[in-house]
Amino acid sequence: MKILLLCLLLVTASSFTEAAEKMNICETGKMQSPINIDTSTVKRLSHAEKIISFYKPVFFKFTIEDGSFKAKPLIDGNVLIRNGKPYPLQEFHFHHKSEHTINGQPFPMELHIVHKSKDGKQMVVGVLIEEGTENKEFKELLSSLKTIQKGQSKSLQAPINLNELFSSETDVYRYVGSFTTPPCTEPVLWLIKKEPITLSWEQIQAFQHLVGTNNRSIQPLNEREISLTKIQQSSSK
């Protein structure tokens, strides 16, 4: 009985330690995100990598909570294919201000498009946002922010086509990092779109008014490499 009790205590202690380490990775992890992208150090990816986007117009349901915003697709079908391996779309969300910076420069907002493979591998496409012309793809979504309260969910009446954010071949900065919110899971493959998109001043203010500032500070690079690769749009419709 004493041996059994000792074994149970050891298992419990081990599980607690493992859980504590996972929570503590936000402070101790060596591959944390976001980072500053120094473009003078970026090199074209040396090995072959093929990333194809299969995005189509779908309806989303979004939820607002304290300091967070998430939009989840109501049907499956949107996916990124990396070297033949599918990463289905899980959700997208915004941060204000941007989490990643380019040569030390932050942007008003940043969009994260989160994907996950069947074996649990994570890949996130980051899209930096600057103030400019109104973004028609997110027009209904951002207009709806004026009519929803924190803690509520709402389904959009018009579909969103994420393909509209990309060209036929889109340059992206590539590096290995983490989620930017607890538990700060590592590793996550990040693809940061080189060219920003625009939202109007009114659209940016609508998001800021409801969610506030929800960005994480820049994390140490720790000898990680940042390379340049491409996302290609699928030719199939």
From TrEMBL:
CDD domains, sorted: alpha_CA_prokaryotic_like (cd03124)
Alphabetical list of Pfam families matching this protein: Carb_anhydrase
Sorted UniProt keywords: Lyase, Metal-binding, Signal, Zinc
InterPro entries: Alpha_CA_prokaryot-like (IPR041891), CA_dom (IPR001148), CA_dom_sf (IPR036398), Carbonic_anhydrase_a-class (IPR023561), Carbonic_anhydrase_a-class_CS (IPR018338)
UniProt cofactor(s): Zn(2+)
Signal peptide from the UniProt entry: 1-19
Reaction it catalyzes: hydrogencarbonate + H(+) = CO2 + H2O
Listed EC numbers: 4.2.1.1
Residue ranges occupied by any Alpha-carbonic anhydrase domain in the UniProt entry: 12-237
SUPFAM superfamilies, alphabetized: Carbonic anhydrase (SSF51069)
Alphabetized GO MF terms: carbonate dehydratase activity
Listed PROSITE patterns: ALPHA_CA_1, ALPHA_CA_2
Family: Belongs to the alpha-carbonic anhydrase family.
Job description of the protein: Reversible hydration of carbon dioxide.
Protein name from the UniProt record: Carbonic anhydrase
Species name: Priestia iocasae
